[in-house]
Each structure stands twice: as C-alpha cells, then as structure tokens.
Design brief:
The protein is about 15% helix and about 25% strand. By secondary structure, it is an alpha+beta fold.
C-alpha cells in the first residue's frame, strides 16, 4: 500500500515498480532509448492522447518530450504540445535513457527500532522517501543507511537490489510513517523478501479514516492496478485488465464520532493498497492528498494519517521471531487527541 512488498523478483506478491510519490523515474531504467509507436484512432490533442495511451508516463512528461523533438507524427517531428492528431496518424515516441544515479552516504539521523548484523528496522518519519530516484536523488533513507552502516563488519548493502536500492526489502510511501526493514546482507535480503512473499512476515498499520464503518471488522478483496489516466494513482482494476490481487484486513480500534481509528493488516502488499481500499470503502484516510476527500480537519498533517505500527518477522539466520513497534508520531497523536475531545467519551 503505502506499503509495498519486495522490490526484487517479479512474483505475485511484489509491487509494481513504477514511480509512486517520487519513488521512481519516468524512464524504463535502461541505458538505451526506448521507442513507442501507435496509430491514432480519434481526434484529440496530442499530449492528452499520449497520456491516455501510455499512462505510465505523465502528461507533463509527454509535453517535455514533444518540446524536445522526441515525438514524430507521420515521420515528421512534432514540437507543438497543443497540436491535434487525427485518426490514421502514426506516432512514434522516443524516450531517452535514464541518467544513472550516484548513491552518496548522508549523515541523516535514524530512529532505529531494531538492528543486528543482518537486518535493521527504522521508524520512518513523514516526508522521507525510501530510496533515491530521479525526482529525489538524495536525502533518502538509503542515503542515511549507507552512512550508518558503512563501517559495520560484513556490510554488503551496495550489492543488494542493484545500485539505487541497496537493502530495500519493502517500501512505505513518502508521507506514511512507521516501521520499515532493510537487509544488511544478501542472505537477509533473500530471506526477508521470501517472508513477505509467502505471508510469513506480518505488517500492521494504524490509520484514521473519515466516517464510521457500520461493521467492526472486515476484509477488502479487490484487485489494484495503475489508474488508467493518472499515472500517480492506483485504482481498483479488474484482473483481466491488469489488476493484481490485493487483500486488506481491517479492525476498528476506536470510534471517534465521524472519524474512526482502524487497524489494518496486509495480506498482500500492492502500491497504495490501504489508501485505495479505504477510499473504495467510502472511508478514505484522513489527510490523504491523493485518495482523500479534501476536507480540512483543523489539524496540520504532513500527509495521510497512516502509520506502519508493527512489524513481525523471523530472523534470517536463527529464525527466531522479531517483534518491532513504532511509536505514533506526534502529529498522529495530536489528531487522535483532537478527535477524542470532539467526539466525547469513547463508545
């Protein structure tokens, strides 16, 4: 969800590795240019047509490609981003290769919940991206971890998951807070990803949603895929149209008048899973800038009121259970206190 699974092998329970909340790039990560071509089937402005045809790239990205001469219509360069295309026109789009990112250790303070020679669990603050990407080349958790772990014996983080995402086992969205684990060796990386894939590791979140669900608990079993138009969003998408199985278990922890504190447990780990499923239920996460209602609640929030509360996994060497719990951030506690005062005694 916010809350995404392994970035490693492409199994049924790994996340879609596209840009989300600044965590990925617009290119395909190759060293060679990538070309797309199609035949137009309707009259439409070219930038709009391209954004709908290839939703993995944003409309603004296509506009820049047009201005840079990377789009051809009927074998002629098109540099007018406001121009129109008509049925029968042939379009070729050339996307330049991504520029490689260099990883630099940065002395950024880390709130460490657990650490040994194999794994480290961090309490991630709001506003911090997990790994470098074209939109966020530094100041990420990976940059901080490279500075923290570089002198540890047996440190092999640069070899894990490629150059740009060393040690990353799963992700949290930029404004989601809480427990996130990183591997410090290749062995740990493989074991921890397998635990997510086979539902051994357990992830529990707390979120504050708008409204009051009728039931005290439930399960959302709805497939999730990339939004057909807005590349920054996910949506409920049928499996036959590219959606991937997504299951979220939810339990009411506290009713707060017109708001509710809910505990979420992930059975799968799709991009934005909790946020999409909550919105689909009619109870979006408070403060969510993408899937929320847009209503002001009178409390200054850095983003969605969603917190990765508990993380339970087996140690990759001795298989003992490790339980970690991330304290609620100050803004989350403040929001709870305000809502409790407004709603009166708990029911």
């Amino acid at each position: 969800m916010d809350e995404s699974n392994s970035l490693g092998n492409n199994t049924d329970d790994t996340i879609d590795d596209f840009s989300v909340d600044g965590e990925g790039g617009d290119g395909d990560g190759t060293a060679e240019p990538t070309s797309y071509n199609c035949t137009v089937d309707r009259l439409e402005r070219i930038d709009r047509f391209l954004a709908v045809t290839w939703p993995n790239l944003s409309r603004s990205r296509f506009q820049k490609l047009i201005e840079a001469g990377q789009v051809q219509v009927n074998d002629a360069s098109c540099t007018n981003k406001h121009g129109e295309v008509k049925p029968g026109d042939r379009i070729v789009v050339t996307i330049p290769p991504d520029r490689p990112l260099s990883l630099e250790p940065q002395a950024i303070p880390l709130d460490i919940l657990y650490e040994d020679s194999q794994v480290i669990v961090i309490n991630k603050p709001a506003g911090m991206v997990v790994h470098p990407a074209p939109g966020h080349p530094d100041g990420t958790m990976v940059n901080a971890l490279l500075a923290h772990c570089k002198t540890l014996p047996g440190m092999e983080m640069p070899s894990i998951n490629g150059v740009q995402r060393p040690g990353v086992v799963h992700r949290l969205d930029r404004d989601t807070t809480g427990a996130i684990m990183f591997a410090k060796t290749d062995l740990a990386n493989q074991h921890l990803q397998a635990q997510l894939r086979y539902k051994v590791a357990q992830r529990t979140y707390l979120g504050i949603v708008y409204g009051a669900p009728r039931d005290d608990r439930g399960v959302v079993d709805l497939p999730i895929g990339r939004h057909p138009v807005d590349r920054k969003k996910q949506a409920i998408v049928p499996v036959e149209k590219g959606g991937r199985k997504a299951i979220t278990h939810w339990f009411i922890e506290e009713r707060l008048g017109n708001y509710t504190l809910i505990r979420f447990e992930l059975q799968t780990g799709r991009t934005h899973q909790i946020r999409v499923h909550s919105a689909e239920l009619g109870h979006p996460i408070v403060g969510d800038p993408v899937y929320g209602s847009g209503r002001s609640i009178g409390v200054n929030l850095p983003g969605q009121a969603l917190h990765a509360w508990k993380l339970r996994f087996q140690h990759p060497l001795n298989y003992e259970w490790i339980d970690t719990e991330a304290p609620l951030p100050e803004h989350f506690q403040t929001l709870l206190e305000v809502l409790r005062r407004r709603s009166g005694p708990a029911l």
